[in-house]
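Feature request disguised as a bug report, sorry. It would help if multi-protein outputs had a clear separator. Right now it looks like this:
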Amino acid sequence: MEVAEAIRARRAKRALSDRPIEDEKVAALVEAVRLAPSCFNNQPWRIVVCKGAEALASVKATLSKGNVWATRAPVIMIVAAKPPDDCQLSDKRDYFLFSTGLGIGQLVLRATELGLVAHPIAGYDPLKAKAAFGIPDEFVIITLVIVGYGGGDDALLSAKQRESEAVRPERKPVGENFFLDKWGNPFS
């Protein structure tokens, strides 16, 4: 699959199968993040890959009610970083979030290429996750990445979530958030 194909095919699906993910595919996702760019190659991300029954039960216990669909996932990654582990520049530019986002972006595209869904979420209790996994206080849990094979039963989805499975959400027109040569001049 070409990168452009993976970009077009990528979707944040929620109807997942509980089919286990092959170890080599999990390793490929780890490698995708490992090779991602970061400010001065600092690689600020720290990721707990939850695959075992006990670890999965613990991370699933942190999910919000709206993310009950994620309880079918055979792999959940806890993504954390802390500001001093990446560039801290003038004007409060802490790159740890940006660098980590680049890594997860690569993971999502690699997952798509491998026939997997990798769905980053914000709906979880970060304090509960930190306590359950021994994550130090100075780290920020940025996201959980729900990983699985798509095409599972949609019984755990809300009506709105079922609807979003069928059609890719609309994107803003390019000129609304891309500008040419100066702010507010729509890119066309």
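(second protein starts here, but nothing in the output says so)
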Amino acid sequence: MKNKRIFWIAGENSGDLHASIVLNELNKRYSNIENFGIGGEKMKSLGFRAIFPFERFSVMGFVEVIQHLAFFIGVEKQIKKTLKKNPPDLVVLVDYPGLNMRIAKLAKSFNIPVLYFIVPQFWAWKYKRIFKLQKYTDHIAYILPFEKKHFNKHNINASYVGHPISEEISIKLSKEEFADKNDLDLNKKWLGFLPGSRNAELKNMLPQFIDSIEMFDPDKYEFMISQATSVSIKLFQKILNRTSKNIKIVKDSNYEMMKHCDFLTVTSGTATIETAFLGTPFIIVYKTSNISYQIGKRFVKIDKIGLPNIVIEKDIVPELIQEDVNGKNIHTTISEILSNEEKYKQISEELKALHDILGSKTTSTEVTDIIGNMINE
């Protein structure tokens, strides 16, 4: 096969991670593919050439996107110039619908094949996006099994490729090793908090998490908060300085934290499905700007926000949304579940259904097969 060029867009941490497992498999099979575009540190570590600063893309919410509109307009212009002047053999779009849906249309206008890996959640809101996916993509690699019925209904060329978390989750430390690394007391209950990977999420979630931690007895509990590499260290520390409690900051062993904690509080997003996959009982929380929430509420067609609850089609994990997200409610919800052994075990058992639903496909292999077929046609 002659040299090929693939243009990728993975605009946030989860997309960077999902794309990286595919890049890793691609590198094993092919030595003559140039991968470039928008991606993060994990993709760059595999030889990916990033043409924009990755941290600038970590924006969500209507108001937040508008505030960064000039940047995104500039990015789109640059991508258009790149695709037109020196068109790649394939465009691979990973999640990130705000930008990716527009780039799909752009790529098709230049007759560049488009693979969409992890599509927008059109079934939750903006269902009309499925018609754009039908029109502007050549193939869809989807990761949620129930999406199949929608693609079949509209005769869209799509393949279920399994969920990437089965490859991405790796537990390298035992509970004892993790405790030793982070100076944790094995005799206490461990509470973990995941505030998200964007600065806006950090501003909205971390103060509420700290408020809830203040209500727990430090003689009985250990407290951990994950710190994503994509958030501002200065902002993280500024919010953390509000408390004098002994809180352990976890930067690189997130999966061990998710696995070994007794209970977790998780900001809605990819981390919720990862936590569910590991089986640790948790609650899902989400809070955005009031304007973004009011706008979003008018469009959302489902009554759940947590992916585990949506995929399993059952209210297994409690959800706290918007005004309900405060220290008192988080503390109360955690305390009620931890004090009810039967409820605690029930959540853990019901989360096991996720393994069966997601199946046993290896995502990196499946997506690489599709890419190989598309660039060799």
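Even a blank line would do. Unrelated, but nice: The longest strand covers residues 4-10.
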